[in-house]
Amino acid sequence: MKIDYKKLLYCFFMTFAAMAIGAYYNNFGMEKWYHDIAQPAATPPDIVFPFVWALLYALMAASFYLAFMSTIEKNKNQKINSLFLGLLFLHIVWTYSFFYMGYIAFALGVLLAIDILSYYILMMFWGINKTSAWLFFPYFVWILFATYLNAAFINLNSYIIVVE
Question: Each residue of 82-95: pLDDT tens digit?
Answer without folding.
Answer: 999 999 999 999 99
